[in-house]
Amino acid sequence: MRVAMIGTGYVGLVSGACFADFGHHVICVDKDAGKIAALQRGEMPIYEPGLKELVDANVRAGRLSFTTGLKEPVAAAQAVFIAVGTPSRRGDGHADLTYVYEAAREIASALAGYAAIITKSTVPVGTGDEVERIIREARPDATFAVVSNPEFLREGAAIRDFKLPDRIVVGTDDEQAKQVMNELYRPLYLNSSPILTTDRRTAELIKYAANAFLATKITFINEIADLCEKVGADVQQVARGIGLDNRIGSKFLHAGAGYGGSCFPKDTLALIKTGQDHNAPLRIIEAVAAINDARKRAMARKVLAAAGGSLRGKTVAVLGLTFKPNTDDMRDAPSIPLITALQDMGANVKAYDPVGMEQAKQVLTNVTYCEGPYECAEQADALVIVTEWEQFRALDLDQLKRSMKSPVLVDLRNIYRPEDMEQRGFVYESIGRPSAKR
Predict the structure, then answer these.
(1) Considering 18, 228, 263, 376, which one is annotated as catalytic?
(2) Are residues 42 and 182 in the same domain?
(3) How far is CA 34 from CA 45, 66, 255, in A?
(4) 263 is catalytic
(5) Phi-psi region of 93 (alpha: psi -120 to 50; beta: other; left: phi over 0)
(6) pLDDT at 339 over 70
(7) Which of 143, 169, 198 is the last residue of a domain?
(8) d(CA 364, CA 343)
(9) 223 inside domain
(10) Angle 335-344/283-306 helices, nearest 10 degrees?
(11) pLDDT at 435 over 80
């Protein structure tokens, strides 16, 4: 099947490469000539494990290519995906659909035969209706169907998620479009991946509801962690105790510095705005968003307390900048408000991240970026673990202690055990666990 993928961001590039690997012929389209030129040279615009190898293999096989011209790929395609960005709109928090509607207009002018026009971007309920209206007004002669096919890809595990999905959601009432979608995903039938076919509006809402629910689980366990610290309980054991209940499950019950990334912050905000617009306020989600925003900056106060109540003129080392491991994504990363708060308290900040420092330099200033964790810890008055990269899970604690001016370690991901840190002479603070005796 011939596929046109509009947008070569995270979703578009991963989806395009995976569809090509299924055997489809995919052309990825983007207006950014520099990005397309880089992709044609084999340079990836994002860090995602295994993506470069997958792209390179399918380019060599002739199934995947990149272009800035939309007309020819759309005219030849049976499936046209819209996978452009939907960032939060400045001022009101609604999803900015400018790029989606712009793509719809350009697709309309290029249609040459029947095509399923598939929205892969995360969009509010009713967006598919507007995309259909735009295309029908521009091309009343065209034969097409607009389908919602939300993505459920985790950064750092996106290729596996695409090829071994929990579910595939298809929102359409058009029988021909259903056939197109079945053919696109036919290679997954051997994996028995369930395809849930719904109406378009339901499919659009499934994506937002899923992300909001996961954000709620994270926020819930973070608040339980705060209570654990007050009463002397261990949040990791609490999470295990409730996660063994199969009605709850253990995933997304890891206490930390708050959620970030490209999806949860903007999607919870967009869902809140949708509820307000339809006079169906989502009070739980409103509370989740507010609590999460406050939590990120509050982590700096935990560092302040561990460092003796003052950071003026002190050096704080930060390990991990991206919002999660195995990505270079800095969007809404907890490290950003944490570092700015530390700087506001008078601290000098050093930082290290295995892949995210170039992205971090675009959003964080007056930070000394280091080449490794031990260089980062050199002469630091306190060290903070923000992202649980595997490289930080087995640090040489004796070397770390020798490098630091003061052995103060604040572990916002609960990588280490308090008793081990106490034995090595660290002042150690973590999330939702009793502090080591000092």
Answers:
(1) 263
(2) yes
(3) 10, 12, 40
(4) yes
(5) left
(6) yes
(7) 198
(8) 11
(9) no
(10) 50
(11) no
Q: Are residues 162 and 264 in the same domain?
A: no
pLDDT digits (tens, 9 = 90+) for 234-291: 999 999 999 999 999 999 999 999 999 989 999 999 999 999 999 999 999 999 999 9
**Exposed, middle or buried, 244 (CB in 10 Å: 0-12/13-18/19+)?**
exposed
The count of residues in the chain is: 438
Contact 111, 77 (CB under 8 A): no
Is 396:414 a contact under the CB 8 Å cutoff?
no
What one-character-per-residue DSSP string does 20-59 give? Answer: HHTT-EEEEE-S-HHHHHHHHTT--SS--TTHHHHHHHHH
Q: Are residues 187 and 292 in the same domain?
A: no
Cβ atoms 147, 168 nearer than 8 A: no
- How many other β-carbons are positioned within 10 Å of the β-carbon of residue 83? 28
- Given CA atoms 224, 230, 235, 241 in this order, what sign does their dihedral have? negative
Tell me the β-bridge partners of 168. Answer: 195
Q: What CATH number corresponds to the domain at position 309?
A: 3.40.50.720
Of 115-119, 189-193, 261-265, 321-325, least confident by mean pLDDT is 189-193
Of all residues in the chain, the percent with pLDDT exceeding 90 is: 94
H-helix or E-strand spanning residue 315? strand 315-319
Closest CA to 263 of 354, 333, 337, 181: 333
Tokens of 325: 């491991």
Torsion of CA 401, 405, 407, 411, to 10 degrees: -90
Query: Is 206 contained in some domain?
Result: no
Q: Which domain holds residue 288?
A: 243-429
Please provide the average confidence, as pLDDT, over all residues in the chain: 95
Cβ atoms 16, 3 nearer than 8 A = yes
Is the full-model pTM beyond 0.85?
yes
Give the whole-angstrom CA distance, residue 46 versus residue 270: 24
In this structure, the answer to whether residues 174 and 273 fall within a common structural domain is no
1: number of Cβ within 10 Å: 15
Looking at residue 436, what is its pLDDT? 54
Kindly state the helix (H) or strand (E) to which residue 422 belongs, with its residue range.
Answer: helix 418-423
Total domains in the chain come to: 2
Domain edge (last residue) among 142, 164, 198: 198
Helix (H, G, I), strand (E, B) or coil at 219: helix
Tokens coding 89: 């709109």
